[in-house]
Structure formats: C-alpha cells, structure tokens
Amino acid sequence: MKLLGAVMDYAEHFRFRESPFSHPLYPLCGMAGYLLVITALERIMRARRPFSLRRIVVIHNVFLCLLSLAMGFGTLIEITLHAVREPDGWLSITCDHRGRVMRGRLLFWMYVFYVSKYYELIDTVIMVLKKRPLSFLHVYHHCVVLPLFWMYLRTSMVIHFILVVANSFVHVFMYYYYAASTLGYKVWWKRHLTLAQIIQFVIDLTATYPFVYFYFTHPKGCSGSMRAFIFGQVVGISFCYLFWDFFRKSYQNPIQRAALTKRAVIESESMDEQAVNKRSIQMIGERSHSKHSGPMQRSHVAPESKTNRKSKQEKGSRTLV
C-alpha cells in the first residue's frame, strides 16, 4: 500500500522536464542505438540458428498487452475528468490555454506511454534473434515515434491524448494476438487488426485538426506547438500509406491475386513470343542478305581479257621451252 501511495503521489505532482528521458538527446540516441543494435545483431545471427524464445516472447507480449490496457484507460479517465471539471470544458482538452490540463496524473500517463515506446524496441530485437525479416515499415515505425511523442510532451500538446488512447487500445489486441499466436492459438481477426491500425491513424490525423483552429483564433493561444502538429501529420500520413500498402499486399482477395498472377504470366509469355518473332525476322533477314550478296560478289570480278590470256599463254610456252 505504501508503494502504491508513493506512486500516486509521484503521479499527482509529476513534471516531465524533471523526469528521465525528457532531454532531447534521449529520442535521438534511442534511434541511433536502436539502428546500431539491430544491424549488429543481424550480422551476428547470419551464422547462427534462430532462437526460440517462446517463454520470453509470451511474457513480453502479455506485459505490453496489460500495460497498453492500463495506459488507455488511465489516459481516458483523466482526460474525461479534466473535461468535466475545467471551466472551459472540452475546450480545455483541445487547447489548454490555461496550462492546467497537461500536468499531474494525465501527464504521468502520457509520459508512461512515451517511455513504453523505448521498451517496445525489444520487439525488433526478438525478431532479429528469431531471424525474422525486418520490413521498412517496422523499423521506421519504432524509430519515428520516439521524437514524435517526446515533442508532444515537451510542448505540452494536450490534444495528443487522442493518439495515446487510440494507440493503446489497438495495442491491447495486437499484443494479445502476438501472445496467442506464440502459444499456437489461431486468431481469426488478424486481418481486422491491421485495418484497425489504419483507422486509428485516420482518426489521429483528423481528430487533431481543432487544435489548429484554436491555436490561431483563441486570444490567449494554446499550449502545444505547430511544428509538433505538422510533424505528427507527416508521420500519420506516412503511417497510413505504409500500413495500407502492407494490408493490400498481405490480405489481397485470392481471386484478385490469381487474376494478377495470370495476367503476369500472359504478359511474360507475350514478351517471350515477341522476342522469338523478332529473332526469327532477324534470321530471315540475314539469310536473305547472304543469298543476294554471293552472286553480287562474283559479278564484281572483272572478266579476263584476251590480251591477258594471250600473254599468259606466251609465258607458259617460254617456260616449257
């Protein structure tokens, strides 16, 4: 109970700038260290067999599943309390021009979410140790969220609670799926999980637009940064594109996939046939050219004159003599 009370007291008076991982070097060093570690591990694992890590993977995914559930509900409860208690109501959780929302327990839960992104880098380490291929989407996603959520916290951008809540609840199902599949259970909604991630990014992009309106129109301004908002929009758009491309390639309709395969085969055969026809035409042209060039070469030989034949006969007669 004392430990729980100490944690609650710490969360009540939490300040981001005085906490670990708040310095600007942390997200930058985190990205650089992450890329160096996975590059080195990939080289080491080339000559080694993949590790099983079944028990570790299950514990890791169950922990992140429960942590995501706590972060989602914790942030949602605190943001709702602020919307009800603050004089400005729902405007306070969009603009927070008084600077009274991004503090205490709400800020603490957002900070926990930010720090959890460093722990989630272990996802990639596990994949490398199991010799699973890494996609650009996977590495890019784990890298870019570090500076993104650091910037949100640094500028006290309260409206990013939408991203925290949406991402946390999606991760509840995602890490549950990873844990279940590691244990050998089949989850029928795997396809819908990727679709839910895409919907999450669309919500993240569109639901944060009120910040722009109040940022420029409110007399007292808003907490947060326009640079952080623009950076978040660029990241969100890139996530939408990359996840949609992954969804399209991974879960394409079997009929469409067969049709595309058939079309590719037909195009390949057509190209081969064109190449054969072109070669045949070249061979016919070469043969035709050789037939016409033979007589022409013979016809260009000048006929031997009578004077030459007579001189040759005289030379022959002299040798005989």
UniProtKB/TrEMBL annotation:
It comes from the Eukaryota. GO terms for biological process: fatty acid elongation, monounsaturated fatty acid; fatty acid elongation, polyunsaturated fatty acid; fatty acid elongation, saturated fatty acid; sphingolipid biosynthetic process; very long-chain fatty acid biosynthetic process. One of its GO terms (molecular function) is fatty acid elongase activity. It is found in: Membrane. It is an enzyme of class 2 (transferase). It is a multi-pass membrane protein. Keywords: Fatty acid biosynthesis, Fatty acid metabolism, Lipid biosynthesis, Lipid metabolism, Membrane, Transferase, Transmembrane, Transmembrane helix. Residues 286-321 are annotated as: Disordered. Residues 301-321 have a biased composition (Basic and acidic residues). Its EC number is 2.3.1.-. InterPro entries: ELO_CS (IPR030457), ELO_fam (IPR002076). The keyword RNA-binding does not apply. It catalyses: a very-long-chain acyl-CoA + malonyl-CoA + H(+) = a very-long-chain 3-oxoacyl-CoA + CO2 + CoA; an acyl-CoA + malonyl-CoA + H(+) = a 3-oxoacyl-CoA + CO2 + CoA. One of its GO terms (cellular component) is endoplasmic reticulum membrane. The chain crosses the membrane at residues 25-44, 56-77, 108-129, 136-153, 159-178, 198-216, 228-247. Pfam families: ELO. Belongs to the ELO family. This is Elongation of fatty acids protein. It comes from Cyanidiococcus yangmingshanensis. The lineage of its organism: Eukaryota, Rhodophyta, Bangiophyceae, Cyanidiales, Cyanidiaceae.
